[in-house]
Amino acid sequence: MVKASEEGKKTNLRVHLIILDGLGIGALPDASFYNDINPNTLKSLSQSVNLRIPNLINMGIYKIPDINIPATQNKAIAAYGKAAERSKGKDTTTGHWEITGLISETPFPTYPSGFPKAIIDLFEKQTERKVLCNLPFSGTAVIEEYGLCHMQTGDLIVYTSADSVFQIAAHEDVIPVEELYRYCEIARKILVGTHAVARVIARPFIGIPGNFSRTAKRRDFSLKPPSETLLDILKRAGYDVIGIGKIEDIFVGQGLTKSIHTISNQDGMKNAMQYLEKDFAGLVFTNLVDFDMLYGHRNDVEGYARALSEFDTWLGSFISKMENDDILIITADHGCDPKSPSTDHSREYVPLLFFGDKIKKDFPLGIIPSFSYIGATIADILKVKYSLSGVSLLPLIKRI
Fold this sequence. Notes:
Order of helices and strands: HEHHEHHEHEEHEEEHEHEHEHHEEEHH
Shape: globular
CATH superfamily of the largest domain: Alkaline Phosphatase, subunit A
Number of domains: 2
Largest sheet: 8 strands, mixed
Distance between the termini: 21 Å
Helix content: 25-40%
Number of strands: 14
Strand order of the largest sheet: 10-9-11-1-12-13-2-14
Structural class: alpha/beta
């Protein structure tokens, strides 16, 4: 086999993988074990007058099995289906790891009553700052409740959620962002073994009491993947592996040849679009986090609907500029139903759309048993040897 660095550039093999962070499409059979009662993120959005997604509909998103959204059944321009998560969890890390071939058989630890005293004591000792809160909390509500005390004392606001996260909020005028990142690195080193949470997250904010707002300088400090992923395989084969958005944070930089951090969905989409015009061979892996972070977690149906509509408008332009050898994959990493009683992620199926000149049109994939089939399919498209979890869908969806 010719190396990807030679073969890939010769044939211009390029895959564009876009994660619509939090766009679930209906409850997984085990959703109740995760305290989710019939979540369906896309169905919740479909009830908004602000949702206009003609390009996703043309791709077949409303033709996916059991999506329970009425729609015309015109021929789709893509292969379409839905994927189930095999990993134990419903968070960003397990979702992205599974997409790239790693199944998490053991769930990451969560802390519905806050973190143990021993963890907090050690964190306070090493940062030389006291801790406020230490409870599950909404990210916007926690700074409203504890922001003034934090500003008066310099104590750190530590909180969690239903996900495996240790989050630290601090006002940028009280604690410089780089110092906040250093505190997150301290927490990351403490949270190992039985307390190895999936992510430590820096949550800087600005403003005055009654008018606080979080900034785009969030940063995730994730666990390192326990073994290689699709990204490592592609990089070793000589391919370009470009991460846009929080991909570098999720994989701790592992397996990437270039990383581009973004401040918004618009910034992520702009960078993804630019790679249609660049000379590269391999994978562009984009995460659009605003759906989840700004709207799903805040139970903002209308904001979420508008954001997905903005993506859809961008999508029409993107697919019109794709090269003959380009393949686009659109999916998600979990659900985040803005109409659910909680502000947490939801255990849902995710959409799976494959589009390109070499992909069959109007092809129903049905229900795919694991996100890992995505990684296996990408490896097959790029002609690299792959032995991680998952089965390639390429034989089903490629045009002869």
